Amino acid sequence: MSAFSGFLSSFSADIAVDLGTANTVIFVKDKGIVVDEPSIVAINQATGGFEAFGREAKEMLGRTPQGIVAVRPIQDGVIANFKVAENLLRYFITKAVGEGRFRRSRIVIGVPSVITPVEKRAVVDSALRARAGEVYLVDQAMVAAIGAGLPVTDPVGSMVVDIGGGTTDIAVISLSGIVHSHTVRVAGNAMDTAIVEYLRKKFDLLIGERTAEQIKLEVGSAAPLEHPLTTEVGGRSRLEGLPKTVLLSDSDVREAIGECIEAIVTGVRVTLDKTPPELSADIGQLGLTLTGGGALLRNLDRRIQLETGIPVHIANDPLKNVVTGTGVMLTQSQLLRRVAISC
Questions:
Q1: Which pLDDT score, from 0 to 100, does residue 64 have?
Q2: What does the alpha-carbon distance between residue 196 and residue 180 come to, in Å, rounded to a whole number?
Q3: pLDDT tens for each residue of 20-75
Q4: Which candidate, 16, 98, 125, 192, has a CA 20 to 30 Å from the CA of 77?
């Protein structure tokens, strides 16, 4: 490397991004994960200005004053609001590496397998407009498998189920390629919405998105628990308009999110049905791996195993598998070229 090239490289940074519906996680080469915040932007409707990003914006959900709205620019794993996503991405990466270094950054971004050409272009353009140098897109299921430590380069079938905020990406991988993939547009956010609707219909109780997510974390499960759980939930009475509190059980939450869980299990079955017999034998022996925030839902591994007969494992640190796997691409250029998605 010449002295001039070395000088220029000191002003650049290689970055891996998990641009998720629920959270954006950023990994910087030689530093690790430096940003992990909600993919939310608070916007002033009167001026069109951006009031807050990430964690600060999430704190405003359900509590914003008149004229301030909290927006999620990423829906179902892809960009729904181009301008807002561009500013969100610029804010997070500038926070991660600084304004000067970001201008020459190489960025690797994980995206859902069902992303359309238009959606691919929107992701790439958002990164470029935020002044990135080079942008590579990689399949989220592939990098989740890499982050979970699965032998994706070996001649053996590996199956990963990545349950994020907006989508559940399911893939069978062998020899660094995706043999078959399936995306279910049902994941963590759909479960939160289902809980909101369940409480409205059954208890006449109105709650917000943050409360629903907390309920899922505290008492949510995909199959009956050995020790039942309950939690008190506060909100507003739909009929009276006054504060109201109800006692919610884990069975209530299972009923609320039942259709969401069934959609994910069906997606796993569909993928298994389309897997070549030789690789099916590998999966039957080695099992499948759950990654993403949804992997932490109590007894989801047990539910899938009971309904498919396949051993199910939960990855270590499933919330970080996508960005960790994407980060691996920063040091393995040959593998990046093999798995990068053409735009």
A1: 67
A2: 34
A3: 888 999 999 889 999 999 999 999 888 989 999 999 998 887 776 778 888 899 88
A4: 98
How is the chain split into domains, by residue range? 3-38+78-142+322-341, 188-258
State the chain's maximal CA–CA distance in angstroms.
Answer: 73
Evaluate if pTM is beyond 0.85. yes
Burial class (CB in 10 A: 0-12, 13-18, 19+), 286: middle
Among 271, 286, 1, 7, CA closest to 141: 271
Which candidate, 181, 148, 183, 149, places its Cα nearest to that of 163?
A: 183
Could you tell me the fold of the domain covering 3-38+78-142+322-341?
Nucleotidyltransferase; domain 5 (3.30.420)
